[in-house]
Fold this protein.
Amino acid sequence: MAASKIQALWNHPAGPKTIHFWAPTFKWGISIANIADFSKPPEKISYPHQITVACSGVIWSRYSTVITPKNWNLFGVNLAMAGTGIYQLRRKIRQDYFPDAQEAVAKE
């Protein structure tokens, strides 16, 4: 049973024998790096970089559901990129445009 599932994954059109598997797999590094940056102060967040990460994630998530074969690894990594980019943008915007909210949280 498990061998047949591994065989099916191995022979899938977006499986490990193709670039359609490896490109999104290595792209997870961008999302992991963005998650590691959650602990950095918002002053060090770059608007252009995070807008690019978020928009790229949204666009390529949509693309990954339209192409044949469906590439769920590509969908997952781009969904993670969109999520982390939006979260980082939210942190930066709150710090730049709503400093009162930051102070209220710090007081509590």
User: Anything to note?
Assistant: The chain has a mean pLDDT of 89. DSSP finds five helices and no strands in the chain.
